Amino acid sequence: MVHDRKNGSGERIHRTAIEGEFTISTAHALRERLLAALGEGEETEVDLSGVSEMDSAGLQLMVAAKREAAARRKPLRFTGHSGVVRDTLDVCDLSAHFGDPVLIPRA
Amino acid sequence: MNLDDALHTFIVEGRELLEQMEEALLQVEQAPGDDDAIAAIFRAAHTIKGSAGLFGLDHVVKFTHVAESVLDRVRNHQIGIDSDLVAVFLAVRDHLGMLLDRIAAGLEPDAETEQSGQALADRLKAYLDGQPAAGRPENALVERPVCLEQAPPTGGADTDNWHISLRFNPDVLRNGLDPLAIIRYLATFGRVAHIVTLVDAVPGLTDLEPEDSYLGYEISFHTDADKATIDSAFDFVRDDARIRILPPHSKVSEYVQLIRDLPEEEMRLGEILMGCGTLTPAELDEALRRQEAAADGAPHPIGEMLVEQNIVHPPVVQAALDKQKQVKEQKSAEGSLIRVNAEKLDEHINLIGELIIASAGTSLIAQRANIPELSEAAARLSRLVEEVRDSALTLRMVQIGATFNKFQRVVRDMSAELKKDIRLEISGAETELDKTVVEKIGDPLTHLVRNSLDHGIEAAAERIARGKPAHGTIRLNAYHDSGSIVIEVSDDGGGLNRERILKKAIERGLVKPEQQLGDDEIHNLIFEAGFSTAEQVNNLSGRGVGMDVVRRNIMALRGTVEIQSAEGMGTTMRIRLPLTLAIIDGFLVGVGAASFVLPLELVVECVELSADETQAAQGRDHLNLRGEVLPFIRLKELFDISDPSQPAVDPADEEGFGDGRAASGSSGDTATAVASDPELDFMLHPVRRENVVVVQYAGHRAGLVVENLMGEFQTVIRPLGVVFNGLQGIAGFTILGNGQVALILDVAGLVHRVATRDRRLNAGVSFAMSE
Question: Least CA distance to A54: which residue of chain B?
């Protein structure tokens, strides 16, 4: 699911979403998706609200995507962290690492 | 085991450890980068300290502690080791040896010992970078490295948490395991106080292999569970991961090791450990400092890592547990060895000696009884007894290597004192010989080595002038040779100065000026009492006592010593000793009614001495043996044995004969064992024939003329009483199967006698050969 929109300075923001499994079984495909997304716009947003399952393969994909983006000097943000994602980041204490605002839904 | 026994064990082990320490020290001096040797030195000091603490030997603990602190720094490459430091530690080793000696003697350290200990401790403290060395530890069981003065008193990191370090193989995900799941599982029996996920290894998306695992974790874990429980969390990933679990309050060195072992950059890891709350900033500083010091050193071998793991000293509560574990580990290492009291072993061998005699008696009776089954049984018995004897004797056999290695120190110390550069080469260290012989050979060997060091090896300038390498070499070598062990002490020094020895000998009236002597004879003169050619007398050797004592000691072991020397090239002293002092394979011969035993390994052959040959010898006691001249001795004449046709000595007199002969026996050659024996009578051939037993010893051959050859006979050597001390030609006695006494001939002495008699006759002068 890909949506494009412009940000405030008129640059194209490429949005993509990851849904369902964010694990080793989908890692190959998701890597391609993220690479493609990075190639599309100047900025990339990845929506994680639909992630229902996550393991360390998913986690390191997130790290790799951030790193890749930094190397290309293109911002990449993860948004809408689902409960599963938040839990994973908590377990690893990596929330701060990504620097993206994580919204904790009201109970 | 009561306390005394335990203390005794401590002393014995302590001495062994000190020996290992010395060996390792000398090794380190040669190869300063030898981490294994340094670890061995540390281990020795550490173990001694620990054991001494158990016995409340505070002075030992206190002293060793300082040494250990310095060693710890050496081990961590904070202090380089050089010959100065080696010298200090050799002194430390000596001091510890002295402390042990005093403990063994039940003495408290006296003022002098205290003083020298304090002096040494001060020298050691100077190595601790001006930091005040730790004083007496509050508790001997608590590890307290000096370098952690500011650290908490438990000696480890302050944290109450376990530290778990996880690195996974790339394949772990593909194998269906998720490291995160394991971390979640940990939370079921404890609390992950802090976790740092290491993302450094994750590449950018382009290079990412999505199914490889890149993440590592450092976890500070709070739990009441024991190590096994924590460990079990990783059961499924053990093959796919590197897991290190450090208990709470581990030593800083543990963390250093952890940091060192992990692939990430060290600074960053240090910060991570701090981030985990595992280390305080002060502890981290300390760790990094060590880390830096270590960076110049060689990579750390696994062995050392293990040692460090072994010395984990968690808080006091854990100390006891740990001790137990240590003991267990030690036990498994020594599992195949048992310490046996030497006295018990001697008793065992004595009993086997009796068994041999009893078995010989049985064989004799079996032969006489002429019952085939009995003979067979007796034969089997004697074969078994022989095997038992052999295996019992090997129990007493020890390698000479340990004795040789002690000379490393002698050579080191003396070459420093003499300001000569001398190296020691050892070969044949695995050669085995009887423990008793090893114990007794130490002193003579020391004399010989010192002599070579002092008189043998020339000063460097002189050596260079002679075209030899500046450093001298002493070689110790041992090998087995026809039932003897040969120990050689050689040097590549100046060799014996023939002229000077001769001059001195003439001065002292040992030889007459007109005497013509061969090189060997001249060389042998240095074994005469009060003979020294050293122009300068120093406190090492050259006081004229020594070489004669050496020869006397060696002869007391039924051995010989000979010299081979080439002027300008060097000298070799060759000591030849019997392998064992207790039992020999003998060859039984009869002269008249008396029986004699010769060591079988010295017998070359037996030939018949026909009347023609006796005639041809023309009373000159030489025999033509296949074209070679063979000097011989008639035992009958030597021991003045009466013909059996004459009335034999009354058997009842037998006990008395020894005493009766003792006085005259000491004069040299009249001892005899006469016993009337119907069996021997029976065995005597009606026509009297003489046989020559050709024996060989140390390159010389001689014939012993006897009447009867009675075959092989296993013999337990029993020493002659003190009254027979001066007796020549007899090495001991044994009891035959039929209860009679047979004398054991001292073949070395007899061969020597024949050889000198020969020389005397040939030279036509009376050469004063000491006998």
Answer: B180
Residue of B nearest to A32 (CA): B205
Fold of the A22-34+43-107 domain: Transcription Regulator spoIIAA (3.30.750)
Phi and psi at B339, nearest 5°, equal: -85, 125
Are B178 and A65 an interchain contact pair (Cβ–Cβ within 8 Å)?
Answer: no
pLDDT of B450: 84
Inter-chain contact B202–A28, Cβ cutoff 8 Å? no
CATH number for B400-578 (one of 3.30.565.10, 3.20.20.70, 3.40.50.2000, 3.40.50.920): it is 3.30.565.10
Q: Under CATH, which number does the domain B583-763 receive?
A: 2.30.30.40
B202/A64 CB distance under 8 A:
yes
How far apart, in whole angstroms, are the C-alpha atoms of residue B620 and residue B246? 87
Partners of residue B206 in chain A, C-beta under 8 Å: 35, 68
Tell me the residue length of chain B: 771
Report CA-CA distances (Å) from B741 to B426, B702, B751: 43, 25, 23
Every domain of chain B and the residues it spans: 3-140, 162-333, 349-390, 400-578, 583-763
Walk across the sheet containing B708-716 and list its strands: B708-716, B583-591, B594-599, B741-745, B730-735
Q: What is the CATH number of domain B3-140?
A: 1.20.120.160
- Per-residue pLDDT at B303: 31
- Across the interface, of A60, A94, A97, the residue whose CB is closest to B214 is A60
At B9-49, the pLDDT tens digits run 788 888 888 888 888 888 887 777 777 888 888 888 888 88
State ipTM: 0.86
- Residue B104 makes CB contacts below 8 A (sequence gap 6+) with B8, B11
A65 chain-B contacts, CB cut-off 8 A: 205
Q: Please tell me the pTM assigned to this model.
A: 0.44
Chain A residues within 8 A of B208 when measuring between CB atoms = 31, 60-61, 64
